[in-house]
Design brief:
The structure holds two protein chains of two kinds.
Chain A (H helix, E strand, L loop, with lengths): L1 H9 L1 H8 L1 H22 L11 H27 L6 H20 L12 H5 L15 H25 L4 H20 L11 E2 L3 E2 L2 E2 L3 H27 L1 H11 L1 H6 L4 H27 L1 E2 L6 H14 L5 H20 L1 H18 L3 H5 L6 H17 L4
Antiparallel strand pairs in A: 1-4, 2-3
Chain B lengths: L1 H8 L9 H19 L11 H9 L6 H14 L4 H10 L2 E4 L5 E7 L2 E6 L5 E5 L4 E3 L4 H14 L6 H14 L5 H10 L3 H18 L3 H12 L4 H17 L3 H51 L6 H19 L9 H24 L8 H23 L15 E3 L5 E3 H23 L1 H11 L1 H6 L4 H26 L6 H16 L4 H22 L1 H18 L15
Antiparallel strand pairs in B: 1-2, 1-5, 2-3, 3-4, 6-7
Helix pairs in contact in B: 1-2, 2-6, 2-7, 4-6, 5-6, 7-9, 8-9, 9-10, 10-12, 11-12, 12-16, 12-19, 12-20, 12-21, 13-14, 13-15, 13-19, 13-20, 14-19, 16-17, 16-19, 17-19, 20-21, 21-22
The chains are: A mainly alpha, B mainly alpha.
GO molecular function, one term (chain A): branched-chain amino acid transmembrane transporter activity
Subcellular location (chain A): Cell membrane
Protein name (chain A): Amino acid ABC transporter permease
Chain lengths: 391, 567
C-alpha cells in the first residue's frame, strides 16, 4: 500500500495506471475499438469478412453507454457501499437533456412543421415553449444540463439522505422511490416531456444526420472516449486519499465517523460524481438509440444495472464494464433467440452471481486478485465472522 | 325489454328528440311492459271502469287532432291502466272489436289474436284478424303517445319506475311538470319517494315561485337535503336571484341554505375520502404486512414478495377452476378454500427460497436483495410460461358484489368492505401468533437480538425459515384478496411491491403497529390528495413526502429501541 502512495506522489496518473492491470487492458481495448470498429464500418467495403455492419456499430455504442452507467454504479457501490437502485433516473435525466436538444434541432421538419414547438406540444395544443425548454437549442447548454441536472438531483438527494444517515437497505429503497416518482412524473403529459411516448423522431446532431454511418461512427468514438475518461476519473478518485476514505466508509462507516471524518461529505461527493457520469452515459445513449421515454426510469432497469456490476465484479471498475457487456450481450442474444428464456436467465444470473460469484467474473480470474479485491474479500469474511450471520 | 328498444328505434326520423327525452321514453316503454305483467289494483284510480272504456273508445276517431286531445286527456289523469293502452296503441296493437265495439289490446299468436280487455287487463277472448279493426296511428300520434307515456311513469305501480321518473323531473326541473307532480304527491304512499317528490316539487317551486313566501318555503325544504343535486339547484338560484334582484331576505336565505348544504356535503366528502383511504390502506396493509415480518426478523427486503402475492392470486384462480364443476358460479366456498391453499402454496415457495438462496446470504442484506429480485424475475416468467401473459378471470362470490349507496354520493362497495374486514382479521391473526405462540416468542427474540436469542438456545436458522414461510404465506393470502379487485396477471406483484416497501420503510421495522399505521396513513393521505392533485401527482407527492420523512426518521415511525449500532 505504501508503495502505491510513493508512486502516486511522483507520477500521479501514469503511476497508478501502470499498477492497474485491468484498467490498462480496458483502456487499450477502448482505444483499439475506437479506431478499428469505425474503420471496419466506414473503410472496409461491405461483403468483406472484416466489415462491421452499422447495426453492430450502434449496438456496441449502446453497450458502451451501459458500460459507463455500470461504471458509475460501481464507483458508489463497489467503493463506498452505497447501493443505489435508482441510478437509471440519472441516466434518463441525462438522456432527456440530450433528447430535448435533438428535439429542438428538428425545427420545422416535424409532422406539424412548427419551427419552435416539438410535435407533441403542437399535438397537445400548447402555444408556447415551457421555460425549461429554453436554451436547449444550443448544444453546449444541453451537454451542460445533461451533467448538471443529474448532478444536482444527486446532490440534493444525497445531501438529505447522507446527512440523516440513511444507509443500507433503506437508502436502496428510497433511491427506488425517487426513480419511481420520476417515472410517474415523466409519464404525465403535463410535464412537457412528451409523456408516454417520450422524445423521438430525431433528425440530426450538430448538423450531422443521425441516420448516416459517419455520425454513428462518431458517436461510437465519443462513447469510447467518454468511457475511457470516466474510467480514468473514477480510478483517480478511488486511488486518491479520498478513495481510501471511501473504501473505509464502505467497510466500517461508524469507525470512519468516529475517527473524525465527515462521512456524509465523502459520500455526497462520490454520489454526485457518479450521477454526473450516469447523465453523460444517458446523453450518449439517446442519439444512438433514437428515443428516450419514461420507461428508462423504471425501477426494474435500475436494479438490472446493479447486476451488471455484480456479474462483472464489484469494486473493480473494469469489472463493471465487462459485466455490462456480458449481460447486455446475453440480453440481445436471448431476446432474439428465445425471448421466454431471458427472464429465467436474468433471474438465475442474479441468484448465481450473489451465491457463487460474489466477486463476479473478474474475481474468478486468478490474475486479477489485486490488493483491492483482497481487502474486499477479507472485509466480507470478517464481517460475517463478526456478526454471526446477521447484518 | 327488447320490444321496447325496437319501438324506440322505429321512431320517425322527423321526430326531433333529445337524449334525455329518449331515455325518458325508453323508461316509459319499459315500465309499460312491466305493467302489463303486474297491474296493481290498489292504486288510486281516477277513471271509473265505465269512464275508461268510454274515453278509450273515443280513440277510434278519424281526426288525428281529436285523437291527440283524447290521449292527453287520458294521460293527464294519471290512471295506471292508461299506460298499457297507450303503449299498445303506439305498437299498433290496439283494436276495436267488431262484435261489441269494445276497444281491446290484441296480440298475434300465429293466426289467432288474443284479446286483452283494457279495463280489467285480463284475457277476453280470441279471434282472427277479420273481426278486429285497427286503431290507426301516424307519426304525430306516436309523438303524442310517447310524451303521454313519459308523464305516466309518475303514476306507475312499480316504485322503481316512479323513482326514476321523479329523478328525471329533478334533473330537468321543467316547471310544466309541476301540476302533474303535485297530483303524484297526493297519491304517493311510499314515504321515501314522497319525500323525494316533495323535494322535486320544492326545486320546481323555487324556479317557478313568484312570491317571497313561496320561495322561502321552497328554500327551507331544500336546505334540509344533502345531495350534490340540491347544491346545484341552490347555487343556480342564488346566481339568478342576485342577477334579477329578488328580495334581500330570499337571497340571504338561499345563501345560508347553500352554505349549509355545502358544509354538510364537504363533511360527507371527507367521510368518503377517509373511507377510500382506509380501503386503499387495507390493501397496502395486506400487501406489506408479510414483508414487514420478514424484514423485521431477517433484515432483508424480499424483492420476491410481490410474486408471493401473485402466486396467491393464481392459487385462487386455480382453486376456482378446479372447483368449477362442483360449485355454482358465485359460490363463496372456492374463496374460502383459496385462503388456506394460497397460504400453504406461497408459504411453501417461501420456505424453498429461504432454504435454497437466502440462507447462504445472511449478513449481506444488499446481496439478498439482488438474489430475491432474481427469484422474482424467474417466478414471473414461470407464471407467464404456465398461464400465459394475459389476465386471468377470477369471479367474485355473490356476497362481494354490489354496494351500499348513499344519496350524498357516498358509495361503499361490498368487495372493499370485505377486504377491510379481511385485512383486520389477518393482522389480528398475525398479532395473535406473535403474541401467544412459542414461535412468535422466538421470532420476537430473534428480531430484537439475534445473537442473544441464539445463545439461549433458539435455532435462529429455523426461525428464519419459518418466518420467511409465514411472511410469504401472508403475501399469498393478500393475493387472494387482491385477485378480487385487480387483474390476475404475471405483473400483479410488481404493481404492489414498491408500495409495500414504502409502507414498511414508513412504518418501521419489527413493529406490526408501525406497518398498520403506515399502511393506513399512506392510504388516507393518498386519497385526500387525489381530488386535489389527481391520482398520479398524489402518488408522486406521497413518494416525495416519504423520501423526506426518511430523512427525519431514518428507521421509520417506530424504530426498534436498543443499543444496536450498525457497522
Amino acid at each position: 500500500m505504501t508503495d502505491y502512495r510513493q508512486k502516486y506522489k511522483m507520477t500521479p496518473v501514469v503511476g497508478w495506471l501502470l499498477q492497474d492491470r485491468g484498467g490498462m487492458i480496458l483502456l487499450l481495448i477502448l482505444i483499439a475499438a475506437a479506431i478499428l470498429v469505425p474503420a471496419g464500418n466506414l473503410l472496409v467495403p461491405e461483403g468483406s469478412a472484416l466489415h462491421v455492419p452499422t447495426w453492430m456499430l450502434s449496438l456496441l455504442g449502446k453497450y458502451l453507454c451501459y458500460a459507463l452507467l455500470a461504471l458509475s454504479v460501481d464507483l458508489i457501490w463497489g467503493f463506498c457501499g452505497i447501493l443505489s437502485l435508482g441510478h437509471g433516473a440519472f441516466f434518463a435525466l441525462g438522456g432527456y437533456s440530450m433528447g430535448m436538444y435533438l428535439m429542438r434541432q428538428i425545427g420545422d421538419r416535424g409532422v406539424y412543421g412548427d419551427p419552435i414547438l416539438p410535435d407533441f406540444m403542437v399535438f397537445l395544443n400548447w402555444k408556447e415553449l415551457p421555460w425549461y425548454w429554453y436554451g436547449f437549442d444550443m448544444f453546449w447548454f444541453a451537454i451542460v444540463m445533461a451533467m448538471f441536472v443529474p448532478g444536482l438531483l444527486a446532490f440534493v438527494f444525497g445531501f438529505l439522505a447522507f446527512r440523516s444517515r440513511v444507509t443500507g437497505v433503506y437508502l436502496s429503497i428510497i433511491t427506488q422511490a425517487m426513480t419511481y416518482a420520476l417515472l410517474l412524473a415523466f409519464f404525465r403529459n403535463d410535464m412537457g416531456f412528451g409523456g408516454n411516448n417520450g422524445l423521438t423522431d430525431f433528425k440530426d446532431l450538430l448538423g450531422f444526420s443521425l441516420q448516416s454511418d459517419g455520425t454513428r461512427a462518431g458517436l461510437f468514438v465519443a462513447s469510447c472516449v467518454f468511457l475511457g475518461l470516466c474510467y480514468i476519473v473514477a480510478r483517480g478518485i478511488t486511488q486518491s486519499r479520498l478513495g481510501k476514505v471511501l473504501i473505509a466508509i464502505r467497510d466500517a462507516e461508524s469507525r470512519v465517523r468516529f475517527t473524525g471524518y465527515r462521512v456524509e461529505y465523502y459520500k455526497l461527493f462520490v454520489f454526485t460524481v457518479s450521477a454526473v457520469m450516469a447523465g453523460i452515459a444517458g446523453a450518449l445513449y439517446v442519439p444512438q438509440v433514437g428515443i428516450i421515454n419514461p420507461g428508462e426510469f423504471a425501477p426494474a432497469l435500475s436494479i438490472e444495472i446493479v447486476i451488471w456490476v455484480a456479474v462483472g465484479g464489484r469494486g473493480t471498475l473494469y469489472g463493471a464494464v465487462l459485466g455490462a457487456f456480458i449481460v447486455n450481450y446475453a440480453k440481445t442474444f436471448f431476446t432474439g433467440v428465445m425471448p421466454d428464456f431471458w427472464l429465467f436467465f436474468l433471474g438465475g444470473l442474479f441468484i448465481a452471481v450473489t451465491l457463487f460469484l460474489p466477486k463476479g467474473v473478474i474475481g474468478a480470474i486468478p490474475a486479477f486478485g489485486s490488493a483491492d479485491r483482497q481487502s474486499l474479500l477479507t472485509s466480507w469474511r470478517k464481517r460475517r465472522a463478526d456478526e454471526g450471520g446477521k447484518a | 325489454m327488447r320490444k321496447g328498444i325496437f319501438s324506440v328505434l322505429r321512431r320517425s326520423p322527423f321526430a326531433v328528440c333529445t337524449a334525455r327525452n329518449m331515455a325518458a321514453r325508453m323508461m316509459g316503454v319499459v315500465a309499460c311492459v312491466v305493467m302489463l305483467a303486474t297491474v296493481a289494483p290498489d292504486m288510486a284510480q281516477a277513471f271509473s271502469d265505465e269512464e275508461l272504456r268510454n274515453i278509450a273508445e273515443q280513440l277510434d276517431d278519424n281526426s288525428a287532432t281529436k285523437k291527440v286531445a283524447v290521449i292527453e286527456k287520458m294521460a293527464a289523469d294519471g290512471d295506471p291502466r292508461v299506460a298499457p293502452i297507450l303503449k299498445a296503441m303506439l305498437d299498433g296493437d290496439l283494436y276495436v272489436r267488431d262484435s261489441d265495439e269494445h276497444v281491446v289490446i290484441a296480440t298475434k299468436k300465429g293466426k289467432v289474436f288474443t284479446h286483452i280487455d283494457i279495463v280489467s287487463g285480463e284475457v277476453a277472448g280470441e279471434s282472427s284478424s277479420k273481426e278486429l279493426s285497427k286503431i290507426k296511428v301516424n307519426n304525430r300520434l306516436r309523438g303524442a303517445l310517447r310524451d303521454a307515456l313519459a308523464t305516466l311513469n309518475l303514476f306507475s305501480p312499480d316504485i322503481n319506475v316512479r323513482t326514476a321518473a321523479v329523478e328525471q323531473i329533478m334533473d330537468a326541473r321543467d316547471p310544466a311538470m309541476l301540476p302533474l307532480l303535485l297530483r303524484a304527491i297526493e297519491r304517493e304512499e311510499d314515504e321515501t319517494l314522497l319525500a323525494r317528490m316533495q323535494l322535486a316539487e320544492a326545486t320546481m317551486a323555487l324556479a317557478a315561485g313568484e312570491t317571497t313566501d313561496e320561495r322561502l318555503a321552497a328554500i327551507a325544504v331544500l336546505a334540509s337535503e344533502t345531495t350534490p343535486q340540491i347544491r346545484a339547484v341552490l347555487s343556480q338560484f342564488v346566481a339568478s336571484a342576485e342577477a334579477e334582484g329578488y328580495q334581500p331576505e330570499v337571497v340571504e336565505a338561499a345563501k345560508d341554505a347553500l352554505s349549509s348544504v355545502e358544509r354538510r356535503l364537504s363533511t360527507w366528502q371527507t367521510v368518503g375520502d377517509v373511507y377510500r383511504g382506509i380501503s386503499l390502506g387495507s390493501v397496502l396493509l395486506l400487501a406489506a404486512v408479510g414483508l414487514a415480518i420478514t424484514f423485521g426478523v431477517m433484515g432483508v427486503i424480499n424483492m420476491a414478495h410481490g410474486e408471493m402475492i401473485m402466486i396467491g392470486a393464481y392459487t385462487t384462480f386455480v382453486v376456482q377452476q378446479a372447483l368449477a364443476p362442483f360449485l355454482p358460479s358465485g359460490s363463496a366456498w372456492s374463496l374460502a378454500i383459496s385462503v388456506p391453499a394460497a397460504f400453504l402454496v406461497a408459504g411453501a415457495v417461501g420456505v424453498v427460497i429461504e432454504r435454497c438462496v437466502i440462507r447462504f446470504l445472511y449478513g449481506r442484506p444488499l446481496e439478498t436483495l439482488l438474489a430475491t429480485w432474481g427469484v422474482s424475475l424467474a417466478l414471473q416468467q414461470a407464471i407467464r410460461s404456465i398461464f400465459g401473459a394475459t389476465n386471468q378471470q377470477v369471479t367474485a362470490p355473490d356476497f362481494m358484489s354490489g354496494a351500499i349507496e348513499f344519496s350524498t354520493g357516498l358509495v361503499l362497495t361490498y368487495n372493499r368492505l370485505w377486504i377491510i374486514l379481511f385485512s383486520v382479521i389477518v393482522v389480528a391473526g398475525i398479532a395473535g401468533v406473535l403474541r401467544y405462540t412459542a414461535f412468535g416468542l422466538q421470532m420476537r427474540a430473534v428480531t430484537q437480538n439475534r445473537r442473544m436469542a441464539g445463545s439461549v438456545g433458539i435455532r435462529t436458522g429455523y426461525v428464519d425459515a419459518l418466518t420467511f414461510g409465514l411472511g410469504s404465506g401472508i403475501a399469498g393470502i393478500a393475493g387472494v384478496a387482491l385477485s378480487q379487485i385487480s387483474n390476475v396477471s404475471p405483473n400483479l406483484g410488481q404493481t404492489y411491491i414498491i408500495d409495500s416497501f414504502m409502507v414498511v420503510v414508513f412504518g418501521g421495522v419489527g413493529n406490526l403497529w408501525g406497518t398498520v399505521l403506515g399502511a393506513f396513513s399512506l392510504g388516507i393521505v393518498n386519497k385526500f390528495l387525489e381530488p386535489v392533485a389527481g391520482a398520479v401527482l398524489a402518488k408522486i407527492f406521497v413518494l416525495i413526502a416519504l423520501i423526506l420523512f426518511i430523512q427525519k426518521r431514518p428507521k421509520g415511525l417506530f424504530a426498534l429501541k436498543g443499543r444496536a449500532v450498525e457497522a
